[in-house]
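Recall the central idea of this unit: under ordinary conditions, the amino acid sequence of a chain determines the structure it adopts. In this exercise we apply that idea directly, starting from the sequence alone.
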Amino acid sequence: MTRTLPPTLALLLSIVISGCRTPDAASFSAVTSGMSKNQVLELLGPPSTRWTAPPPDPNRPRVHWSERWHYGDTLSTTASTALAPEIAPDGVWVVSFGESGEVLDARPPRVPQRTDPRQPPPK
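Accordingly, the structure predicted from this sequence is:
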């Protein structure tokens, strides 16, 4: 007797697994200002999420990018970005594009600094 996953569970697992895809440091460090979206796609593959700059709002910080791609998003980082789209989560790889569709900047995940050596490392 063979067992199969229910379709809903299979879909959920595929979404979770696809969101875990992150570029390797060498590939990501090859991303430079001025590259096109196609060049980034060839180098890193598709992002886990794509974000369009929010419309101007006097109550929120102004953003310098037109579109931003995240690699390695989790449900938590995606929810955080949905609430505050002008802020890229620290735990993801980020590529920002300008109005012309060329890379403005790229940054790897930021690792929080521990201030107390007795404090356990972040999970």
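The longest strand covers residues 67-71.
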